[in-house]
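Re: beginner question about structure tokens

> Can someone show what the tokenized structure looks like for a real chain? I only ever see the sequence side.

Sure, here's an example I had lying around. Input first:
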Amino acid sequence: MRRMLQFIGVGLVVAVLFTSFGLGGALAAGPSATPTPDNPQSVPNGPWLQDDQTVSLASIMTNEDLYAKLQHLAEISKGRMTLEVAGYSNAPVDDLMQPVGYPLYVCKFGDNSDAKVKVFITSQIHGNEVLGTQAAVDLMQELIAGGKEADDILSKVSIWIMPRINPDGAAYTVNGERYPIRYSLGAWDPVSFGLLAGTKAPWYYSSRYQGYDQNRDYSPDVNFRINDTNKAAVEAALNDRTKNNSNYGGFYVTPEARIVTKVFTEFHPDIYLDLHHRGFNTLSDTDDRSVSIQVAADVAEPYTDP
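And the corresponding structure tokens:
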């Protein structure tokens, strides 16, 4: 029964994602006639954005738009959803609630009781992957609107949603124009972590953008913190290219990663969905329909705190 309820929660999220991205009909349709160069089922090599093409981001929510929307949803939810600030994007890593930078909100449908299946959803860890946030908002609207399906799910499943966990990257501008980027902003400052000046930055730091790929900043040990670790060992690891690379975990240097982990450990979810964009590819050499959504699942035994 518990496994069935898990799939119910995931199924609703995927269904809303399909609707939000406009993918449901295209993916549900079966193959048509055998594809040929003159009669392809899709066009996997385009069309793409052209150099002289103007792109409007007017329909993409700014941080201010999103926060106003979340406040409105909480107000009309009749108690279904509670809205909390989990921390701030530029807060000191040892005081995540200090109001510096943008707030990271958590939208709670239910508590963290083990009486229900618990689903945790985060979106826009990369600031330029914007559509998952809209899909998460669509999901919240569905749950707040109610109805037999939504009511049945919320009677069995608690869902916590952090719809934008990289607000700095989402708000990035170039020459006064919105230009969302992948990175969570923050210059590498080893001294602020008690490390020697000149200690090399983590491998996922971008000196060009003065920020981090937050998706690489997490550690398998959710309790790891540079502040609480032998500083000489951390310095040695960061200055060693055989250890400071993509084969190893992150160092929890961003406030955002620490905030998300704080919520994760409080909630202790059964299922965690992190929403991303992806590129396009075809199903196979003989079926050239585009694959435009992917669910990457890590199936493991229940985790335990170290």
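Each token stands for a local structural state, so reading them left to right follows the chain. The longest strand covers residues 82-88.
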